[in-house]
User: Fold these one by one.
Assistant:
Number 1:
Amino acid sequence: MIWSQALLVITTLLAILYLTFYTEKNLEWIKTPLIISLAAFALYLTLPLFLHLDNPVYGWLSVISTTLLFVSISALIRELKPLYNRYPVGFSLFPLLILIVYPFISDQEVLRQLLIQILQGGGLLIGLLIVITLLKPVENSIWVLTGIILIAVSYGIYWFIMDLYSLDDWIWQVILAGGLLFSMYYINNIFTYLKQNHFL
């Protein structure tokens, strides 16, 4: 494990601890999928110490992590709506259907990578749009936006630039670690906004 990968694992674990113990309560339906998503990502990063990189468990961890991120985003979108306009809680679980589809393409490398790429890109885009709409009402949400932009830059480097220019892994890993720190530390401001405005 290179130093930047270790840094990313530590950052992810710190984000999990922060979300678990230092953010607003009564948000489990938003926080729990996000925490499990981050835990799956941390496991994805550490498994190369024990398993060969072609092991199918990597694909599953990547899809599980991204799918649970979508569940968390869906729950957040629901809570941002007025009470009379909210969809049922169960609708937030619809992204889990991806886990039913995944086994049919898990042995096809190109389709598997494309699915993960689309899911991650879609999650980033939705997260970016949510934070932009909250820039004015939520204090310091500019830092969450900064974090998501850094994560998006890391995403772009990993999927589109790495192979093209033979860049080292530490570049996207350090940028992603910075994005996680910004996003997780200030995301509690969004949670506080939900609570103060009686969305919960």
Note: Residues 37 and 67 are 8 Å apart (CA to CA).
Number 2:
Amino acid sequence: MLKLKSLLFIASISVIILSLSGCGVSSKYGLPSKATESKIINSEKLAYVIFGAEEIGATRTNPIFEYFPESETFKFVTILTSNQKYIYPITPGTHYFYSIGGATYDFLKVEAIEGYKYFTNLDVIFWTWRLTTPIVFEPTKDIELIKVINSRILIENKPLSKKWFDIRKNNLDFKAKVKDRFEDWKEDDMKDKTLYIEDGFPIK
């Protein structure tokens, strides 16, 4: 009986470790991309944002939208989970992005020029028993962090992820909340949460 209890205890610990590391857990919203990075980043007339997510917490999901403050509208980007990355093509110019993580949120500004790619990491501030995972955009041109982002699993969106977004995109309370948050972010944090033109890397 004691041996059985020990085995059950070890098995339980193994499940917890797997859950926290993200190993062996498939994503509800994304699957490994059939296209390679070189197939996606294929136009020198566009720019590209590469979003990476920390390898912490298989249950954590981070929806990312592009936000258009003038029209107060959104465009779906992706929903990332642990140890994933997503490549998003954009036109040259200024773009804003919004992400939700648990009860928290963050914005990112990208000033892009054609033929360049820009990197940002979704970083977890801390982990709590309530599974609230405060996240922040970590815009970067640090080579070592970019190596880590590049090593993550490239995904494509499942239909379920777009469905999740469609349910919320016209919700008036949601839109009002994002608008208020954006104004606060512009005043307090935008300078530190911007990828400038010179932060990009040529795609070729």
Note: DSSP finds five helices and twelve strands in the chain.
Number 3:
Amino acid sequence: MDANLSLPLQQLPIEAQTDAVATSARSPGVSPLTSLAGAMPPVACRTTQQAITAAKIEVATLIAHHAALTVERDARKVRLIRRADRLWAVDRQAEIALIADRINGHPHSIVCRLKQTYHGCQHLVTQWNYLREAAESEDFDGALTSADRNAALTLLGIPKFQRHLPNYPIDPDPTDRDKANPGAVERTRAKILALVETQTKRLEAYIEVLVEEDREQREFALKGIFLVPDCQLDKLERQRNRDERMIHKLNDAILGATEDDDNDLTAATRTKTSSSVKPTTDSFSTKTKTTAHPLE
């Protein structure tokens, strides 16, 4: 026997309650009365009416919980609307920072993801501009430092295990690796600056498109339509939907059990009525037969 049957209906797990109570809605031939009564132990519930009452109490509890979740959800929406009005850029930049923190482990996928958003493209432009400053610096001696080179290759989406190769666009040409060659430093500097210019122009073209999308998302958020996912709001919505499903299942089972109980009562009444009428008819027939006998 299931250990859950030793508990009152109110103490059963929610899933066990709804599964037991709503069995009749899914399984032909199983009475809602049996389902409701089976959800409670024999000692706690000996009649179908007690099971129905317990299920109604559970429905009331779920309705109260659903109402509390609705209040919490609405409060969360108000907070998100206020943040969209006052701190939209700050929140989006914080999200981008969390994504960018993983760029060293997965450079290609993270760079592609950053390019999908307005603030992500701005972040990449900022990083390329740091490399521009390094190349334009007076301390530039014909090659980027190890840290700057790794940063550039990360922005290009090159994984770490391939960075030992010496022929990337940020590296000096083979003829310019000897810094003593006249013009070697300037040629390498120009090569790096050309790469930075190409990358930033491409990102700025993305930004021109994505800025409109970002503005639309903010306008929707101000109206309470959140295109940017919010984990807490999504969790509240899932809990509300779960409660709604359970309430519907319990109400369907209660309705089925009540109708079944009424049908049983009607059938019992008809049977009782038929039993009480039949002796009267037999008595009348016997009496008629008895009075007719002397006349023969």
Note: The chain has ten helices and no strands.
